Predict the 3D structure of the following.
Amino acid sequence: MSSTAPWVEKYRPNTIDQVVYQDEVVQALKKALESSNLPHLLFYGPPGTGKTSTILAIAKQLFGPELYRSRVLELNASDERGIEVIRTKVKTFAQASVGMQSVANKAGYPCPPFKLIVLDEADSMTKDAQAALRRTMETYSKVTRFCIVCNYVSRIIEPLVSRCAKFRFKALEPTLLRKRLSEVAEKEQVKVTNDALDRIVDVSEGDMRRALTVLQSATRTFGKEIKPNHVDETAAVVPDQEIEDLLNACIDVSDKKDMFKAMQKQCAQIVRRGHSAVQVVSQLNNHIISSKNLTNVQKARIALEFGNVDKCLTDGADEYLQLLSLSSHILRIKAELDPKATGSSNEDAMSVDDD
Amino acid sequence: MVLLVDKYRPKSFDKMDIHKDMSQQLKNIVNTGDFPHLLFYGPSGAGKKTRVMALLKEVYGVKAEKTKLENKEIKVGSQLSKSITVTTLSSPCHIEINPSDSGNYDRYVIGTLLKEIAQSAPLDQSAERNFKVVIINEVDLLSREAQQALRRTMEKYVKTCRLVLMATSISKILSPIKSRCLCIRVPAPTSEEISTVLQKVAKQEVFNLPKAFCDEISEKSEGNLRRALLMLEASKAEKYPFTAGQKARLPEWERFIADIAKEIMEDQSPKRLLEIREKYYQLITNCIPPELILQKLANYLIVVVDYDVKHQVSHWSAFYEHRLKCGSRPIFHLEAFTAKIMSVYKRYVKLLSFVNNL
Ligand SMILES: Nc1ncnc2c1ncn2[C@@H]1O[C@H](COP(=O)(O)OP(=O)(O)OP(=O)(O)O)[C@@H](O)[C@H]1O
Ligand SMILES: [Mg+2]
């Protein structure tokens, strides 16, 4: 593979031994490799934790490059996987006999006498298609093994789950992520400061693919010396200063006349800069929790508004309006529940009307 | 006549005046020979498309400019029994698609087209760029299923095709997709940057653009360069030479919304509500997106009302816009918002006069 290929592909584990952190599944698969047998499998867990890599690696180790094509069928979310396809495509593939083992054994691979069907990204399979799969799995259980891969095991119907050996892929440990990143950085001759490494680990939340993509993107964009601010820019994190500015505009109630306008201006600006509202809201929340300028009561009231905004944004509501509404609530809560201004708050509210 | 917006669209990185450092970074990215999948995001009018086209030119040279429109048949439905037609724009080295136009069928468009492109192996394997670029517009409007369909495809076909995804916001993009791309944020230009571009255009078109007027346009352009240029052109058509105190000419529909705000302030009655409803219908039939109507209206109202009411407007506009997104008849929610603001405002005015009479 060329030197410029995506690092996630370049450093994708080729054997199950290279899969980091997912010991449980690796152990089980090693046993399977020795005994040349495999149960039906169900892999689930957050993105970028090695699910696809693991099943592809074991498939290669079982069948070798020669037989891979005829023995492994990979269907992912981009393939049509309605009931019809499950019935026909999977059937045809499963039915075609696996041929004589002795012929296959030549390359030194175990080549067990069954075929492997990988249903990657199975979250998006309909319930009906999954139901259809039940029968297929049973009918051809002698000659096929299935591996169902998904992010949320709750999206898979119970009868399927119970037919499989279940393996949870855990979000990767920060220390392991860091180690892997340093290794890759060294191989690619990239200098990454310690702060920057921490930052990458921070923003990738246990997602190895994200970590590698951020590292490679930062290298591509900013050259071979990576600093924390480069990481922020490539990882779509909002710079702390901008969040700080927004928060200050929301809790600075000294200038009664212009405070709303100042707050509104910050909201508009942050949206115009192209930051994602979801990201802004989550970072703003962190700042508020640790803010010394708000009382606990104020924080509690604000927390309610955060819940509301999060729900609306998930439903696809307009980002600017949601951010404005949230900020306006924070401003009002700060102004009305200000410990310094207690007692005079009523008067204040009305004094606005004088001019 | 060519619009200024089109006439002055920069065709290559060297001609771009805004975000010069980003142009350099993009050059760095593509000049190493190969590049990862890209995801451009930022507000509309910030110049995402212009940048992507410049990028293509940087990668493939003039070949990328020989584009043609093409209609393609795509089989859809669970039995693949129906078929729909989608329009694509392509050159020998890239193809541009708008799967979100196909509504619920978007995932079939993605699945079918991507596979077709990726599997039609490039003719010249030894060529320096032996991959095609697929530009997908409005990725944030794609259904969950369509986004799911992109995931593994992006990994599998990375050798033969590169995706360039475009979105206004990345809030709605699945994280497995974001982690498969190099994400590039394209912020809107600042008012100063817009002013610079406007002055440059005025100079090339040989007309006089007073600084004060130029700044007023940039201020009102909301960081949208397309809007700024359109406003400049409209204002010039209205009255030239520009005079002191001349107002930048806003788009027609926006003045219409400003009027609605005024009408809400003047009179809060069922009769007025009915009149305003007519106006909403007119706006909607003119293809102004209802959420934009609500957003603009809220902005106009916030400027004119008192402090306490400002909070109410921002709260209720967000509330009803959310409802509007979840519901199916925008007009209901626009109307409900209007009624709500009328009642809030009326009560406020009553309270005011009560307090003043004490
Ligand atoms: N446990 C791991 N050990 C080593 N590398 C890993 C591991 N997990 C992920 N990676 C790296 O991340 C990349 C993506 O991993 P993979 O495709 O297996 O993720 P996934 O779990 O299938 O994610 P998704 O749910 O998004 O499909 C791999 O190419 C590899 O470089
Ligand atoms: Mg995967």
